[in-house]
């Protein structure tokens, strides 16, 4: 459905490289996630695919249409929800939806079944101005507007940024339901924990794709054993771990520090415990953990920079 | 087409719901007409004058009565000698003194020629000029009346005629100027701002990724402001006819047609500005500096173009308001028809097509 072939984008006359030869494919009916921190190039990729920006190099097709030549056809078929809330704040919920339905040559009634699950949640507020909605409701309205013309592909640029945890969860459930309707969804997010909710993900950093696979495969591909360590002072713990020669990767993860060792020696764990005790740490807790997407991302990122 | 009307309807919601802006848009012409028509007027009313009547005959007293009866003059004192004139001026009590020579009526009746001296305080040259003109007009008026009854014409030596605006009414000048200014502000600035606002709010992003054609977006944005402008044209004309008592001497249909043409020029300019500006402030700034100032300064509405140095006269030709101002003056005040203003009309039409084509070509179908 969507193919990118060495797509590149620079800003400021080539001095800032935002997207660096990115290639991937999104299959029909797939929920594909583009995962990466702010400034990784997610929005640039989305804007190129939705024909809003021209690539500097490379090519891409959306639903078989070239993003440069056939931009008009793409604009007729896709649904796009920009990262920022981009509806008319001074129009009511219903007026916004009606407006976008007309712009896309359709009516609310025609595709009501598609947005029903989402729209019923905001329908009690249909006379309220869009600008006065809460963050979660704004997202639901924006999604309804992007869906109203039954697009073949839905581009959602950071739909859950700035939305509370409950609304985020609801939002992803909605996406799953939409998938069953046969709509291909391309979603970007900076939240690593949302990656596992996608069929396949692409991890992206500084405009480069680090890895593309199913979330499970990416986690399974983590080569080392991962340990989580906790002690009273996380600051000194981190410093001492960094100074410890046998530790390969080390970064904080909530109240824990995640580390992996350079070799697979079985004595790693007791040796480290002894080292930390010697350094005067108290209440030390070391446990083996299964790596998450974030662990994979950080490992790939450090590999890339080395 | 349904898309288009839906877009226009949405645009009206924006205007209607932003009550403050709407009030400014519709109230601005009223306020400007009132300010320019009454407060900023350069008409001189009830000026204090002094009379030194050395003749004291029938003719001189008739003229004095007429001067006193006009709303422009008020006779403050009757003087008895020349030195008193200077004293009166020095006291700052009077703006002008009128001196009748001895034998005034005898000269007039026997020599058919007589003189009146107008002494004006030229420390404010404009006022002095206006006052002498008023006085001359009133004397000339008297002269014409006595001439109708005689075979041999009598002449009183003040021969000036005030064309089209015999009373030198300031409003005659201001109404066309205010019309040009209001239409330019409403159309250019507001369309530029409203389009740039969509860019700022991110809604333009969504509009671009939709089947709506860019040219439709542009036109749909302009339509509500065209309608608002027509309301403004109507309110300005009503105010000027019924409040400022400036008559519409020419064809009202032609006047409205030309005003709509100028509105379209302004709208095209607004669209052009919006394609270059990225923020509402920039759009407003460009509209004000690049359009509003030249309109006020170079259209001939504040300062006569003929008196400007050559470079400014050349620049004034690219100011659309200059042509519109001249059209409105011709149609509304002089009562002339299309035969006289076809050149201006053609220039405005050309400007509109040029700006509109440029605006549509420069409209960004992408974000950067």
The unreliable regions of chain A are: none
Number of domains of chain A: 2
Based on DSSP secondary structure assignment, what is the total number of beta strands of chain A? 14
Strand order of the largest sheet of chain A: 6-7-8-3-9-10
In CATH terms, what is the fold-level topology of the largest domain in chain A? Rossmann fold
Classification by helices and strands of chain B:
alpha/beta
Using only CA atoms, what is the Rg of chain B?
A: 27 Å
**How is the largest sheet of chain B built, in terms of strand order?**
2-1-3-5
User: What is the share of helical residues of chain B?
Assistant: 55-70%
How many strands, what sense, and barrel or not for the largest sheet of chain B? 4 strands, mixed
Keywords:
heterodimer, A: 306 residues, alpha/beta, Rossmann fold, 2 domains, 4-stranded antiparallel sheet, 14 strands, 35% helix, elongated, B: 368 residues, abc type-2 transporter like fold, two-stranded parallel ribbon, 14 helices, 67% helix
Q: What does this protein look like?
A:
- Chain A: It holds the Pfam family ABC_tran.
- Chain A: Belongs to the ABC transporter superfamily.
- Chain A: Keywords: ATP-binding, Nodulation, Nucleotide-binding, Transport.
- Chain A: One of its GO terms (molecular function) is ATP binding.
- Chain A: InterPro entries: AAA+_ATPase (IPR003593), ABC_transporter-like_ATP-bd (IPR003439), ABC_transporter-like_CS (IPR017871), ABC_transporter_ATP-binding (IPR050763), P-loop_NTPase (IPR027417).
- Chain B: Pfam families: ABC2_membrane_3 (PF12698).
- The complex is a heterodimer of chains A (306) and B (368).
- Chain A is of the alpha/beta class.
- Chain A has two domains: 218 residues, P-loop containing nucleotide triphosphate hydrolases (Rossmann fold); 68 residues, Alpha-Beta Plaits, CATH 3.30.70.
- Helices cover 35% and strands 27% of the residues of chain A.
- Chain A is built from ten helices and 14 strands.
- Chain A has a six-stranded mixed β-sheet, with helices on both faces. Chain A has a four-stranded antiparallel β-sheet with strand order 2-1-4-5, with helices on one face.
- In chain A, strand 7, helix 6 and strand 8 form a beta-alpha-beta unit.
- In chain A, helix 3 packs parallel to helix 5 and helix 4 runs antiparallel to helix 5.
- The longest helix of chain A is centred in the middle third of the chain and has 16 residues.
- The two termini of chain A are 34 Å apart.
- Chain B is α/β, with parallel strands linked by helices and 368 residues long.
- Chain B folds into two domains: 233 residues, no CATH class; 110 residues, abc type-2 transporter like fold (3-Layer(aba) Sandwich).
- Helix content of chain B is 67%, strand content 7%.
- In chain B, the strands form two sheets. Chain B has a four-stranded mixed β-sheet, sandwiched between helices.
- In chain B, helix 7 runs parallel beside helix 10.
- Chain B is elongated, with a radius of gyration of 27 Å.
- About 2% of the residues of chain B have low confidence.
- At the A-B interface, helix 2 and helix 3 of A face helix 1 and helix 8 of B.
